[in-house]
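WP5 quarterly update. Target: Pectinesterase inhibitor domain-containing protein. Source organism: Lactuca saligna. Length: 186 aa.
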Amino acid sequence: MGRAILAWLILLSLAICPIKSNTIFLYKSCNKTLYPQLCYVYLSPFISRIGTSPRLLAQTALAATLSTTRSTSKNLTIYSRTHKITKRESGALQDCLEEISDSAYELHISMVEMGKVRSGSDFLFNMNSIETWVSAALTDDDTCTDGFSAKSMNGELKNVVRKQKLLATNGTMVFKTKWRYQHSMS
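Structure tokens (predicted):
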């Protein structure tokens, strides 16, 4: 009898305070990523939109990553125009911009693919396709900073790209642990 009352009270409190259940869902989901605090900071503004939907969480995580990737590209472009850098640094920066542009494209395609996912015979194909695109974006992010060996490029610029890489890693983990798992069980 006591357990039934407790269960009823919990259900009632969740109905009265849906934001709390959304917060718990996001908190638990972000705790499964490599960078939980970063995950929570970037996704908490969308908590009412996400609710407790693994699909919306995965879409929002990838959208936040794509937005940050595009912002990173703009910041790198501005940096290249406003800072005096050597010819070698300029080449490394141009290579990085190309990689970040590729990453943005691949994240965009992964979101398009996510919209195509339905249960059925193509499910695994679509899921693997999304993982492939996101993995390619992560590889591009890693490759971006390979040429950043000069002191000026190793600090400020690497930090800008690193933040974007961390978000991409989190977005991938949210996709794999929440949405893919939920859909593979249905």
